[in-house]
């Protein structure tokens, strides 16, 4: 016991005298040590818990490559397309920086979507993590806005017409709609003022995201991570220090993620891009199809599945907004789907529904796609607004384990191999 309290003290004090001097005045070392080193973490987190740090990593990559691109990009409707070509051909490693940024957006969304569905499966949005979840939804909205604005900057046919279609949606708002669109454009069509304000906001929003991510992490560290069992930690046998256990696990996940990411950047850099992204914007020629990036497709399908424009716009925004109130729509007392025999299946139905909507969004709204889009849209809202509230009342959850240690350690932690790791309380 005496040894352990010595370790406690040693763990909190920086070893170098310079660091001690700084820490006494500005406790940065104590903070990092507390939040990232001995931070007690459930001992049973699986690899799905890597995606938060992967999203954080991608945020840093996007800001870094974005700032470098900004050094060579020109936000002028006559020069933007050419400046991007200049980055690709003349700037040293410009092609690589641009492809990392371009594909990075997709991989940022991949990490974030897996992160969200992980939260849905294990009920991480439930009390006491409601605000953590809601901050996540704010981040998602900011990410979507940033990605949309960025898509317009190369001033290609795709970006230009994407901007025209999406900004025009606001014209569906009664009375003030047209005025809002003119205000957004900074004129009477998508033109140079639109490009310049989109650029200013595209540069700004990622830093706003950084701020909200910090709040997200403060909220996370208030009660600590949820875990695959969805039960609260109960004593030190349930926790292990974040370092080295999860720093190593996160690094291994990052290595695997980077392999796939690098494969896209170096071997399939335009796989997720559209042919119209290679044609300079021409306000007099509408492309045959204006298709958004893959990460917007399910929402785009919802927009098009409703025959009325205003109702479609409302449905599209509601598809994200409904996530804000999810912690109160889900009435089940049990967090993890592992112990919810019906929700387990309902969750996968939602996954299939979202993928189907994405498929519909990528195709022309005709024939069977119209029907699938409408059924998919109906089911999406049915899931959140009807199934989630009712399921909590009718489902009989399986019995929960009494502690994480008793559920995941051999012989409930009584085995000699399952030595308990000392953990400092938060
Ligand atoms: C820039 C985007 C984001 C970053 C950098 C980020 C970062 C993180 C990190 C590092 C964690 C802890 C590790 C983990 O549990 O995976 C976390 C947890 C969490 N995040 Fe995010 N996040 C982002 C977006 C979101 C979004 C969009 C949502 C939901 C709509 C969300 C909801 C949550 C929840 C509920 C937890 C707690 C999970 C648990 O303890 O089981 N996050 N986030």
Describe this structure in words.
This protein is an all-alpha fold and 426 residues long. Helix content is 64%, strand content 1%. It has helices at residues 2-12, 17-25, 28-37, 51-70, 80-89, 94-122, 130-152, 157-168, 177-185, 192-223, 242-267, 297-305, 309-324, 326-329, 343-361, 368-394, 404-408; strands spanning 40-42, 239-241. The chain has a two-stranded antiparallel ribbon with strand order 1-2. It is globular, with a radius of gyration of 24 Å. The chain binds protoporphyrin IX containing FE (HEM). The site of protoporphyrin IX containing FE (HEM) has 28 residues, from helix 4, helix 6, helix 7 and helix 10.
Using brief descriptors, characterize the structure shown.
globular; mainly alpha; disordered N terminus; 2 strands; 17 helices; 64% helix; 426 residues; Cytochrome Bc1 Complex, Chain C; two-stranded antiparallel sheet; binds protoporphyrin IX containing FE
